[in-house]
TrEMBL record:
Its EC number is 5.3.1.14. The lineage of its organism: Bacteria, Bacillati, Bacillota, Bacilli, Bacillales. Binds 1 Mn(2+) ion per subunit. Gene3D superfamilies: Divalent-metal-dependent TIM barrel enzymes. Mn(2+) binds at residues 262, 294, 296. Its main location: cytoplasm. PANTHER family: L-RHAMNOSE ISOMERASE. It is found in: Cytoplasm. Keywords: Cytoplasm, Isomerase, Manganese, Metal-binding, Rhamnose metabolism. GO terms for biological process: L-lyxose metabolic process; rhamnose catabolic process. The gene is rhaA. It is an enzyme of class 5 (isomerase). It catalyses: L-rhamnopyranose = L-rhamnulose. This is L-rhamnose isomerase. GO terms for molecular function: L-rhamnose isomerase activity; manganese ion binding.
Length: 426
């Protein structure tokens, strides 16, 4: 380790120690945290099962940066590059359309063996895997409805796909010895004001009951359900609203997935964590960055990210919260997008752990709001950067922006040499 990094760390440690914060202990805790890195940033949510299928479901990727992964091997190579620049051991979050197989299974026919290469790869690298049924970008969801579709045959297809997905998730968990979270998100909704808001919700509820009927070992597998306020083409109404899934999850002992981009523009998920935690045994996060709408921008160190970190630390929710990322930006280097978003998420957690939580809580209890505000503000310029640099160096990943040169080299040597998808698809 370079001496200046160590010296700055030792100086920072002393400052934090004056407030009773044991920085070495904080880093031991930080090292245990896993971020579930979403595979779909690497190829603009295209997947490998249906090569010519347009992205649907009211989500959108914009940008034309070269180098999107075209095959499972390319995607794994890009993920490996990103993980080499991110401190800690993490998880990869897969969607069903990322099956790695020469077969052409339909979504309702998927089996664990279609993901065996992902499992072998993850095992070799000590990574965990999470999973998602892909209820979009498919002809059976073309009218924007899946599990709530009025046609029982359409519902059956998606129910069977979700059931298959849970079995795949359970296989991941069992094989890798790390609990897999399978998250169900469906895009179902209407562009304009519905005549009947109740019937689609009744159908969605009944479909979910079927999806979750099979009991799976919770030490291998946990279920989550993700709500949404609106999407492109479902501006007026989404069947799976927050209230719908909050009720469903609490009644059925499922986890609620809070996506930072799925609420009203001024509504934040950080403020929901402590409430939901009182009524659920775990929460899944999709850390994202909405800009005016559910735009899925790369996560930056903004107030909401810091507040998410604070809430997880101060309410002691780190053990029961599964932290996943969900953004997709095709206007910048995709490996860099992962590195920026994941490093920021870890850094925000570190910053939260380096705050004088007990002193702040005490000031609040005493009614001393002056001290609460003063300490909060002064800690914003405490030397967390020195601790972060030390942590990166100690973890064997580049310090500060040094990771960028490695991404640029990878771009030159690998990403820019990739042709179009069409050139390798049979
Ligand atoms: C691709 C993801 O599953 C998707 O982004 C979903 O999680 C979502 O957030 C939809 O808006
Ligand atoms: Mn999401």
């Amino acid at each position: 380790m370079q001496e200046p990094i160590r010296q700055s760390y030792e100086a920072a440690k002393e400052l934090y120690a004056q407030h009773g914060i044991d920085v070495d202990q904080v880093l031991r805790e930080l090292e245990k945290l896993k971020i579930s890195v979403h595979c779909w940033q690497g190829d603009d949510v295209r997947g490998f099962l249906f090569q010519d299928q347009a992205l649907t479901g009211g989500i959108s990727v914009t940008g034309n940066y070269p180098g999107a992964a075209r095959t499972p091997n390319e995607l794994r190579s890009d993920l490996e590059k990103a993980f080499s620049l991110i401190p800690g051991k993490h998880k990869v979050n897969l969607h069903a359309i990322y099956a790695d197989t020469e077969e052409k299974p339909e979504l309702d026919e998927l089996e664990p063996r279609h993901f065996q290469r992902w499992v072998d790869w993850a095992r070799e690298r000590g990574l965990g895997l999470d999973f998602n049924p892909t209820c979009f970008s498919h002809e059976m969801s073309k009218d924007g409805l899946t599990l709530s579709h009025p046609d029982p045959a359409v519902r059956r297809f998606w129910i069977d796909h979700c059931k298959a997905s849970r079995r795949i998730g359970a296989y991941f968990g069992e094989q890798l010895g790390q609990t897999c979270v399978t998250n169900v998100w469906v895009p179902d909704g209407y562009k304009d004001t519905p005549a009947d808001r109740m019937a689609p919700r009744k159908r969605l509820k009944a479909s979910l009951d079927e999806v979750f009927a099979e009991k799976l070992d919770p030490s291998h597998h946990l279920d989550a359900v993700e709500s949404k306020l609106f999407g492109l083409g479902s501006e007026a109404y989404t069947v799976g609203s927050h209230e719908f899934y909050m009720g469903y999850a609490i009644q059925n002992h499922k986890m609620i997935c809070l996506d930072a981009g799925h609420f009203h523009p001024t509504e934040v998920i950080s403020n929901k964590l402590s409430s939901l935690a009182l009524y659920t045994s775990g929460i899944l996060l999709h850390v994202s960055r909405p800009m005016r709408w559910d735009s899925d921008h790369v996560v930056v160190m903004d107030d909401e990210l810091l507040d998410i970190g604070r809430e997880l630390v101060r309410s002691r929710l780190l053990d029961t919260t599964h932290i996943g990322l969900d953004f997709f930006d095709a206007s910048i280097n995709r490996v860099a997008a992962w590195v920026i978003g994941t490093r920021n998420t870890i850094k925000a957690l570190l910053r939260a752990m380096l705050e004088p939580v007990e002193a702040l809580k005490k000031a609040e209890l005493d009614g001393d709001f002056t001290t609460r505000l003063a300490l909060t503000e002064e800690f914003k310029s405490y030397p967390f950067g020195a601790v972060w640099d030390y942590y990166c160096d100690k973890s064997g990943v580049p310090v500060r922006e040094n990771w960028l040169a490695e991404v640029k080299t990878y771009e030159q040597n690998v990403l820019l040499k990739r042709g179009s998808r069409a050139s390798i698809v049979n």
